[in-house]
Amino acid sequence: MTNTDVRLSEQNIQILKSCIGKTLDSITHEMFHFRNSVSQQVAMQIEGSNVYILSFDEELPYFGTIEDVSVLSVDTENNLPASPSPTTTPIGNTIKGITVVQEHQQLSIDGVLEYDVWLTRGIIIDLGDREIGFEKDTWLSLEIFIHKGTDVLTKFISTDTFVNGDWSDNCVATCEREIIRL
Fold first, then answer.
1. What phi, psi does 19 have (nearest 5°)?
2. Which of 27, 88, 114, 172 is the most buried (most CB within 10 A)?
3. Are 119 and 6 in contact (CB under 8 A)?
4. What's the angle, vertex CA 149, arms to CA 176 and CA 103, rounded to 5?
5. Distance between CA atoms of 130 and 5, rounded to whole angstroms?
6. Measured between alpha carbons, how far is 96 from 142 in angstroms, rounded to an integer?
7. How many whole angstroms separate alpha carbon 42 and alpha carbon 78?
């Protein structure tokens, strides 16, 4: 059986916890082109400092092969090249709370559990009267979707997308969400 765990690290969680109660001044990312997604990075300006939400490739087992799998991370430093067309959205609200959305994906083949995967699907920033959600796209995509409004978790990709994926008849997939409020 293959076990993969690409959830946010404890260090990533501590960075997020340190943001609660502070003012989210703005977010900066590349301009949207066809949909509400950006490639690899979002900078949150929080009381004069930057916190980055990053999506980067890591070589990992991916359902029978080794692939460059995108992993979500949070950091106070960013080594990725700057976006050629950045846009900044002013926010100016206090961060009331942060929710981390984890998924536990499993794939059984011929009744035997073969893949047991934990990943971070996204991060939701609670601003009191609204939320901003940053959702990691599929396994092989570096895109981060940005959702704004209320109850943004409902805008995240459904767990059914994994469960009802293009699996062989002898495969059974499950996916459960774990919601962690910091």
1. -85, -20
2. 27
3. yes
4. 15
5. 31
6. 28
7. 10
Among 151, 132, 123, smallest CA distance to 93 is for 132
The CB density around residue 146, as the number of other CB atoms within 10 Å, is 22
**Whether the model pTM is above 0.85:** yes
Report percent pLDDT > 90 for the chain: 70
Comparing CA positions, the residue from 47, 48, 41, 51 lying closest to residue 76 is 51
Closest CA to 123 of 132, 139, 134, 131: 134
Please give the Cα distance from 124 to 88 (Å, whole number): 18
Q: What is the pLDDT of residue 39?
A: 81
| DSSP notation for 78-124 | --SPPPSSEEEEEEEEE--EEEEEEEEEEEEETTEEEEEEEEEEEEE
15: left (phi over 0), alpha (psi -120 to 50) or beta: alpha
Are the beta carbons of 59 and 68 closer than 8 angstroms?
A: yes
Residue 124 to residue 96: CA distance in whole angstroms: 11
